[in-house]
Known about the structure:
Mean pLDDT: 88
Number of strands: 0
Structural class: mainly alpha
Helix content: over 70%
Largest sheet: none
Distance between the termini: 38 Å
Radius of gyration: 21 Å
Strand content: under 5%
Order of helices and strands: HHHHHHHHHHHHHHHH
Low-confidence stretches: 398-402
Number of helices: 16
Amino acid sequence: MELENQxxxxxxxxxxxxxxSIVALAIDALLPAISDIGTAIHSEDPTVNQLLxxxxxxxxxVGQLFFGPxxxxxxxxxxxxxxxxxFAVASIICLFAPNIEIMVVGRILxxxxxxxxxxxxxxxxxxxxxxxxxxxxxxFVVAFFILIPVVAPAIGKIILDQFGWxxxxxxxxxxxxxxxxWFWRRQKETLKPEYKIPFSLGVxxxxxxxxxxxxxxxxxxxxxxxVTGAFLVYLSxxxxxxxxxYNLKEAFPYIFAGLAISIGLSTFLxxxxxxxxxxxxxxxxxxxxFCSIALLYVVLFWSSSNPxxxxxxxxxxxQFFCLxxxxxxxxxxxxxxxxxxxxxxxxxxxxxxxxxxxPIATLIGYYVDDTVWPMFLGLAICGLGSLAIFMISKRLKTxxxx
Length: 402
């Protein structure tokens, strides 16, 4: 199945990118509608409404633990279909949820469903290509994927203004249905029958035992969780910050897009600079800058009101520019010692880091009510914690079993 000397097919790249982009659409398109949804389901506390964003990540983390091994046993396509079905049911739950609790359940289920196409896309690409062509396909897919957070809030805002918040969920369902039909009709099964692995609980137990043998893997999984948690604070609170604290409801999608571009730009730069400086040095420098900017904001605006919007956006732009040099490199460092269990190892890494990030985002987000200052304090704490773990792990570059 693997193709090493064949030019990547444009339709294949577009289909894989579309499978991954549903996740970003389900998260970011809903951001402009959070306050409207809260009013509709009688949940007026903006810090509670942030759960509609953070909880979908819990589903994404849990789901990949099961869908990855299931796809190794039963094939890629059947498991993707199951994921789409779970997503559809979850979207209907969200549409008719009478209160915030039921809608949060729906969002968790949405995340579980979407974890299937999100994670199995990587497996399909791995099955189909290898070597430089696999890297090329992944680059194209990621490039397309990065564009979605830029345009999704604007799409959500247009739909919200014209048809109401419910239409955003209907749009997600329609987009998911189109991609599912496209996937069914045009994508062949990529897992060869002889490569199927019988599904058993032993896969999780053995994989976890092997995962825990490597101190560096554990360290950078924790760092990934802290950094992801810091970003989730912004992602879940961004609508409240720009619409309620700054009264910029109409400008919110464009501000969000601009900050998303900063992450995309640094992600592209990382692909070039990492070959020159190495992923550890580059991510270490980015983490120091990340901590410094957060601490600078904490000191400058201690016990004061929010600064001018241009100052805030400037601070956030630098913060997120650093993230582009951190996310991928941290995960690569964590995965480096466990290439022999890459599938289950990646699932455990994603699950643990997500599980760590959710309470961090929820706790810090609770205090982002009247001012942005608590968010930067949270960014600083998460950054300093990550930096401490990073410095300790410098002595553990060579994997050591424990």
